[in-house]
Amino acid sequence: MLSDSLAVTTVAVTDLDRAKRFYQEQVGLKILDETPAGFRLGAGKGSQLSVRRGQPNVGQTVAHFEVDDLDAVVRDLTSRGVAFEEYETPKTVNFIAQVGPARGAWFKDPDGNVLGLREGPAPTAG
Hints:
By secondary structure, this protein is α+β, with helices and mostly antiparallel strands. The chain has helices at 16-26, 70-79; strands at residues 9-13, 30-35, 38-42, 48-53, 61-66, 92-93, 96-99, 102-108, 114-119. Helix content is 17%, strand content 37%.
């Protein structure tokens, strides 16, 4: 039954107003719904990201966006003030790592939640 349901990632933040500005103005997502406890953002292809007040999950990728042109998206987000991370594992060069057949890049929201970008063939159900 769940295979037909929309899955929504939830990100916990300490400051909802700061997070709202970051996700709207810098990442470019649109608010779909808002309550005193949090808000939900719309992303591409019907995907959504829920943001709520809570303890951030720092150090782990909490969500990633599948993109067609990783270089262009990194340039666009960088121009909006998003700071990308450099890592040794996987090794990034100019913020981008080769991960198997895909390429990835990672950035943090103001609370330290790690979000990723991924370009490459998407896994499919077999």
